[in-house]
Amino acid sequence: MEFLARLLHLQPQTFWMIAKVIIVFAGPLTLAALLTWVERRGSAMIQDRIGPNRALLFGRWRLLGLPQLAADGIKFFLKEDLVTADANKALFWLAPFLAFVPAMMGFAVIPFGRSLVQGGQTYHMSLLEPGNGMGMLYPLAIGSVAVYGILTAAWSSNNKWSILGGMRASAQMVSYELAMSLAVVAIFLRTGGYDPHEIIAHQAVLWNVIPQFFGFLVFFVCMFAETNRLPFDFAEGESEIVAGFHTEYGSMKFALLQLSEYVHIVTAAALIVTLYFGGWQVPFVAAPSVTLSIAAFVLKLVFFCWVFIWIRWTVPRFRFDQLMFMGWKVMLPLSLGNLMVQAFLMYRRG
Amino acid sequence: MFLTFALITLLGALSLAFQKNLVVAGLCMVLTFFGVAGLFLLLANPVAAALQVIVYSGAIVVLVLFVIMLLSAHEEEEALKAHAIQRWGSAAAALALAGGAVKVVLSSSFLRTPPSPGIPPPMDLGALGNALFKNHLAAFEIVGLLLLATMVGAVVLVKRDL
Q1: Which chain B residues contact residue A170 at CB under 8 A?
Q2: Band of residue A223 on the pLDDT scale cut at 50, 70, 90
Q3: How far does the CA of residue B95 sit from the closest CA of chain A (Å)?
Q4: What Gene Ontology terms describe what this protein does at the molecular function level (chain A) (predicted)?
């Protein structure tokens, strides 16, 4: 660390801060871009077909269809940028940014590895230092404003399908946020703190997924609702309302909306790993080295990203009344009950 | 920093008041709430900032926008002209509230004895819980009861045939 900092004529702390900003923004973005490839190849694998593999690098290398990513990017940049005549122009332009910025911000609080102690300095592996007072409230807050991108896109398009999609998204958001927050509160109770570093340190012996199994179930399902992924992609619902909130979007604006969905998947997977699967902890290794801890975190992260894709191509979409029924009559009581049991156990223990 | 957030809050509030388009006005409200959350952060109270964003920006305005979208698909009809008495009444109410707020600030004991220099420790959830459930328990319970009554009232109003 100090060597690298001296190479750039920077203080080690400054260097690490800049490096963290780059890691936290570029990491999820790269993973999200790769996920669009994994999604198409994975869905092809699951449905027993070939999937995109025709794009060739320099007309020669196929690389399992990876050049498709570059082809898509070039295509999105070169497409004509259409704005429908009756759209609200300013909001129509603003919406992709409103979707993208919160998606990129969510990852900032997640510790992606064990803190590195070197030369009397501690380098924390998260953009927000521990003890900032926000803790796990931060991703909840960011997640709750993510819906504005969808709402603005839906409303500004001035299209009936889009507005239907936007309304579905907001109703779904409000219904599932409550159960999700209560599941997270049960984790706070169990840990006795709400900083992600504390939550991970508390899972050194036992991952939260075992004592908090019902909380995990609720949180896991709510994450699908929050990221608008199948079986909860009512905002999009392509078999019913064309393409929902992004019906009128094309070119790079569409790409931003789509990319923010994949960044949301990465953040959601990171939250699941941090809250329930021990973050960077390695099972049966008491004090993993920094490299090992980062590797463990990335491995868990990638696995849960894959689970999101896996479930999309396995489970069919719900009906909207089923979604509401499940949100209010299954998830909320389950989450509340989980919280009560946890509180009672803590009271018994004293 | 204070000026930035104060300006965001004020400009958001002003455009909220003068915006004819309901959905844009709703988005301005979100901007105002973000400004207030920033002010909370400057006051070393990140918990209040996070709760402000979760509850107000995240839940309440989403609900408001949902209702707006549900009622009027896109273009709103001309709003009714406000009666003169409504206009003057609201102006008087706003002035009274502003006067009260200024009076509270001016009568604060911190103005006479500036707090000790140095950065105070940021508020955390534990301190907030203690404040709510130890120092202000009665007020907390009364507010809870009020909300429950409102909820029961809303259900009774909507579902006539229970």
Answers
A1: 62-63, 65-66, 69
A2: confident
A3: 32
A4: NADH dehydrogenase activity; oxidoreductase activity, acting on NAD(P)H, quinone or similar compound as acceptor; quinone binding
Q: Do B123 and A163 touch (CB under 8 A)?
A: no
Are the C-beta atoms of residues A174 and B57 closer than 8 Å to each other? no
Residue of A132, A145, A167 lying closest to B46 (CB–CB): A132
Kind plus residue range of the DSSP H or E element containing A122: strand A121-123
The per-residue pLDDT of chain A, averaged, comes to 82
What length is written for chain B?
Answer: 162
Crossing angle of helices B61-71 and A147-156, rounded to 10°: 20
3-state secondary structure B60-82: HHHHHHHHHHHHCCCCCCCCCCC
Q: Tokens at residue A306, please?
A: 């894959």
Instruction: Look at the block and give the residue holding tokens 């230092």.
Output: A129
Q: Is the Cβ–Cβ distance between B65 and A169 less than 8 Å?
A: no
Q: Which residues of A, range 129-188, sit inside 8 Å of B by Cβ?
A: 131-135, 137-138, 140-145, 147-148, 151-152, 154-155, 158, 160, 163, 166-167, 170-171, 173-174, 177, 181, 188
Question: Alpha-carbon distance A325 to A321, whole Å?
Answer: 6
Q: Which amino acid is at A31?
A: L
Q: Angle at Cα A40 formed by Cα A35 and Cα A43, nearest 5°?
A: 110
User: Rounded distance, CA B154 to CA B102, Å?
Assistant: 35
pTM: 0.83
pLDDT above 90: residue B56: no
In terms of Cβ atoms closer than 10 Å to its own Cβ (0-12, 13-18, 19+), residue A347 is exposed
Q: Tell me the DSSP string of A232-247.
A: S-TTT-TTTSTTGGGT
Q: What is the ipTM of this complex?
A: 0.75
Give me the sign of the Cα torsion angle A37, A39, A42, A44: negative
- Using the predicted structure, report yes or no on whether residue A141 has a pLDDT greater than 70: yes
Could you say which of A132, A155, A171 has the minimum Cβ distance to residue B23?
A155
Across the range A111-125, mean pLDDT stands at 77
Q: Is B159 exposed, middle or buried (0-12, 13-18, 19+ CB in 10 A)?
A: exposed
Kindly state the helix (H) or strand (E) to which residue A8 belongs, with its residue range: none
Q: Computed over its alpha carbons, how large is the radius of gyration of chain B?
A: 20
* Cα–Cα distance, B149 to B132 (Å, whole number): 21
Interatomic CA distance for residues A301 and A276, integer angstroms: 12
Q: What is the largest CA-CA distance in chain B?
A: 62
**pLDDT tens figures, B65-86:** 887 777 765 455 555 666 778 8
> Tokens at residue A75, please?
């295509």
**Residue A108, number of CB atoms within 10 A of its CB:** 18
